[in-house]
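Hey, quick one: can you model this chain's 3D structure?
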Amino acid sequence: MGDNPQELHDLRVAGRRLDAILRQFRSSLPASLLRIRPTLKKVLRVLGDARDLDVALSELEAFGRELPGSEQESVEPLNQYLVSERGRARARMLRVLDSVSVQKNLQKLTSLLTAPAAVSQQSSRDLALNVAPEMIRRRYRKVRKSADLLTPESSMEAYHEVRGHVKKLRYALDAVAVIYGKPADDMLRLLRRWQEKLGVQQDAAVAGRRLKALASAPPKGIPPATLFLMGRLAEHYASAAVRARKLCAKGYKKVRGKWKRLRMEFEDSDVNDVPTIADSGP
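Sure thing. Here's the predicted structure for all 282 residues.
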């Protein structure tokens, strides 16, 4: 229903993982499954709109707790506005989720996933051992290529691009981590932490744009004291982004260190005849 921020977040993550699986393994999946992706993307967009406002409300609550008592009243008009926006985003989300087309496609997805799978003459683990190393290497190369170009002066878009590649590597590795055990688990843990640091910047950028738009055309009921407070909140977001950016290089260094161990695990696997795999795209 979208009432609980954590449950909404969990649903969004589940949708992202499912979409990542359909994208990463599309060359091995039936067309009937792949036709579900446009529906998933539509759902993910409206979930993301509601989730962004959940994050904004949570950040505003934390910011307000740090203010002197005399200034805390100035937070309430902005909080009420964000709550109202969250309500509208939730209504849009429910309309999409309840729409005939989305419900029909989700029911179709359920039927496809519960249908008996064709039996392969080769075990799934053997097939994964053949395909997984090159799939993960390709994703890692994209991470490294973009991360190597980052500097403290790089644009927010550049950091966001790295975060996208990190997320795709993480989801791809997560799909086969059970095969490689601890090296894969260690790598996933570091990728998740690095992605979170990169995400702080993205959240700050989204919040900063929202505050700038509000300040340029304040809604009715936003008093001058709240507008002034919004400027301080924007500075708070900017400072959080700077702190997170300073930690990104350290996160990347740790990932590179763990990659060496995971790469050795790939090389120890019995993969003498690795097939050529088409790039699954961005």
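One thing worth noting: The chain has two domains: 1-115, 130-270.
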